[in-house]
Fold these 3 entries.
Entry 1:
Amino acid sequence: MDALGKEGRRLLNSGLADGLESLTERPPAITALLQQLETMPAWVDPDMLRRGEVTALSVSPFWYVLSAIPSALVHTYARPPSPGC
C-alpha cells in the first residue's frame, strides 16, 4: 500500500465495495487480497450459514440488544490486563 499511495487506497476501497471485477487497474497485491476475500473456503457449509442467518434474524431486536450488549461488556471487562499496563 505504501508503494501504491492514495491511488492504491482508492483501488482497494473500490474493490472491497464493488468486487475485483469492477477494477480496471489491478495491482498484484490488491488482486491477490480480493481474490482471497471473494473465494469461499472449501470448509464452509452454505446450508449452515443459512440456518444461522434464519436463527439470528428470528430473535427480535429488543431481546438481541438486551442479551448481546451486556454479554459483550462482561467479556470486555473480564479480559486480563495487557502486559505493561
Note: The radius of gyration is 20 Å.
Entry 2:
Amino acid sequence: MRKTDRRRGDPRSEGDVAREQGAGRREQRVLVVDDEPDIRELLELTLAKMGLAVDSAGSLAEARQCLRASSYQLCLTDMRLSDGEGLDLVRHIAGLPGDLPVAVITAYGSAENAVAALKAGAFDYVSKPVGLEQLRTLVKSALSLPERDTVAPVSQQLLGESAPLQEVRALTTKLARTQAPVCITGESGSGKELAARLIHLGGARRDGPFVPVNCGAIPETLVESELFGYRKGAFTGAAQDRDGFFQAAHGGTLFLDEVAELPLHMQVALLRVIQEKRVRKVGATDEQPVDVRIISATHQNLAALAESGRFRRDLFYRLNVIDLKMPPLRECRDDIPAIAEATLARLARQGGGAPRELENILERAVALAEGSEIQADDLRLHPLVAQEEGAEPAGAAAPGSASGPLPAYLDKVERDAILAALAKTGFNRTAAAKLLGLTFRTLRYRMQRLGIKEPEGDGR
C-alpha cells in the first residue's frame, strides 16, 4: 500500500489548499487499486492534478487495509488483481457502511464484464486505455453524487406506502447512484417516466438535461434524424444543421420510452452509439462524442422479443443491465386515495406532473365535470367495472367475436376515443391530446395511422 497526499500540477499553492480546507471544505480522497505500478502512477498524477488526495494499493488485501484505515469519496479498481477480482472489491465495498462509489477500469473489456460489474454495484465501468478526459469526467461525476437524503419535490415523487411502491422507491434511490443502464418495465400509465426522472434527479447528472423520447411516436423514416440529428442538405427539407435527442441530452439522461418500437436497423445504430459513445448526424462524415446515460422503458416483454428475434439480443443485454418493474395501480389499491388527492391538487394548480393510470382518469373527469365536484359519471368507469365483474360493457362488441379480430377492435376503440376528444374540443388537437393524456406528437401520429383527417380549413 502506498499512501500519498500529492497534488502535482495543481495550480493552487499549498497555502491556498490549506486555506480552502481550513474554511471547511472536506478533503476528497480517492483509492486507486491496480497491480501495475505504472498504471497506478499515471492515475495518481491525473487525480493529483485535479486537486485530490490519493492512496494506492496493488492488491485486494492492501485495498481492504486502506479501507479500514481511511475514508474515501471514490475508488478506482482494476478488474483483475494479483490476489482476486475487482468484482470482489466492488462487493466488499457494497457491504460496508457508507456510500462509496466504485468505478471499474479494465483491459479486459466485454459486455459480460460490464454487466457483472454494474450489477455488483459499481458506479461505472470503463475499458483501457481510458482517455484522460473520460477519466476526469468519470471522477467529477462520482464526486458530485448528491447525499442520499436529498428529497425530490412532491410533484416528482412516487406517492404511496404499499409494499410494491416502497420497493420501487428503494431501487430508484440505489440506481440513481450508478451509471448502469436501466430498463423500466410495466404497463402503460404505471409511472415509468416518473421513475426515470427520479433516477436522474438522484444521480450525478441531476444538473444536466433529462430528455424523454417516445420511440413509438416517431415515424420510422425519421427515427435516425430525430435521435442523431442531421446536416444541412442531408435530405429534402434539411435547411440547416440540427442536433438530435442524443446531443440534446449531452451531460444528462436520455429516456427512450417504448424502446421496443425501434426498427431493427436503428437498434444496430443505437448499439454502436452505446459502445462507442459517439454519434454521426445524418449526412455527416465525422462523429461527435456524446456523454449520456440511457434509461429505457417498455410495456412489452423485451426478453421475449429478443428471444424471438424481434429485438436485437446484444442491444437487450446493453439496455437491460438492471431491470426495474413498475407495479400497476391495481396492485397498489390502498394508495389510490393519497395519489388521487395529490393529483387533484396538482390539476387544480394547473401544474405539470407524472402520468399514471389514475391521473388520466382524474384529468378527464376534471374536464368533463359540470360543476365544482366530480361525480361518479364523470369518471367514465362503467366499462372497466363491468369487465372486472365479468360482464360485457354496454354497447361494446367483444374482441375476437363476429365483430372482428382483436387488432380491429382495439383500433375502433382508439378511433372512437380520439374522435370523441376532438369533437369535445372543436377539433383542437392540442386540447384533445391533453384530454386524452397524450403528447401532441403522439396524437398526430395516431390520427395519421387511423386515417382521421381534420376538417378542411382547420389548421390547428
Note: Residues 5-25, 351-355, 382-403 have pLDDT under 50 and may be disordered.
Entry 3:
Amino acid sequence: MSGGLDPIQEDLPLELPSSRPPSGGDKPWKTAERSAPLAPSLYEQLLHRVKSVPWAQWRAQATPMLRTGAGQIGMAARVAAKHGGSVARVAVQHGGTVARVAVKRGAPYTFRLARATAQISLIRALPLLVARTIHLVGFPAVVLRTALQFTIAHRAGLTVDEVSYFRVDDPAGYTVYEAPPRLGTAIAIAYVPALVLWVLAVLCLTQALTPRIVLHLPVTWVTWMQVWLGVGFAAHALPAYEEAGPVAEQARVGVVKADPVSVFWLIPAQIVAILTRFGGIIPAIVGVLACWWLAGMLIR
C-alpha cells in the first residue's frame, strides 16, 4: 500500500539513536570518526630505553680490563708466595687510576685484626673483671658497708634516693643520698664504715694467725673461714671513689674557708681519693696488706 504511514517507533531511552533505516526525508548516517592514536605508556617508554642501551658493546669493552686486572693481581700473589712472606706491591695504571696491591704470606689480615681487637678488649676488661671477682668473694663486707652507710645517712637526716646492697659490678654496693651540708657528716658516712671493717678485718686475721703462728696448731676450716672474712673486710675497708672524691673536694673547699676539720682531713682525703680513683683493685690490695701487717704486729 503506497503512501501509507511509517510504522510506529517508540522513543529509545537515554536518547540513543534510532535503529531504523533512514527514510527518504532523513539524512544519511554518518560514519564513525576514528579516534587519535594513544601515546605509549610509561612502562613502554622505560622498556624501550632499557632495550636501547648498548649492553653488548659495554660488556665487550669491560672484559679485557677485568682479565688484565685479575691477571696482575694473581701475578702479585704468586710473587709474594714465591719470596716467602715478602710484601709485593704492584702498580697498575689504566686510564689515570693507580691500584696498589699488597699481598703478604702468613695469617690473614682479618684474623690478625680480630685477634688484636680481642687482646685490647681483654686488657681493658681485665681490671673490671678482677674488681668484680674481689667484690663477689667479699660480698659480706659489701653488704655490711652499704648497710652502715645507709644507717648513718638516714640518722643524719639526709634524703636517701637509692640503696644497692650488692651487685656484680664496681662498686658492688652504693647508697645515693643527699649531699651533706657539713664535712663532718660526709666523713662519718664515708669513713665510719671503713673503720668498722678495718677493726673486723684485724680481729678475724688475728684469730686466724694466732693458733698457727703462736700456738702452732693445725689449720682447720674455722681458720680458713676467719681468713676469708678478714681478707674480705680488709679488701673493702677503704671507701669507693664515688664516696672519697666528694669528701676530698668538700675538704678542699673548707680549707679555703679556714675550717679546722678540713685542714686536718684534706691530706688523708686526697690520698684515699687517689688510691680509689682507678677502681677497687688498688684499695683492696692496700687494705689487705695493711690489715695483715697490723694483725701480725698484734700477735707478736
Note: Residues 183-214 form the longest helix (32 residues).
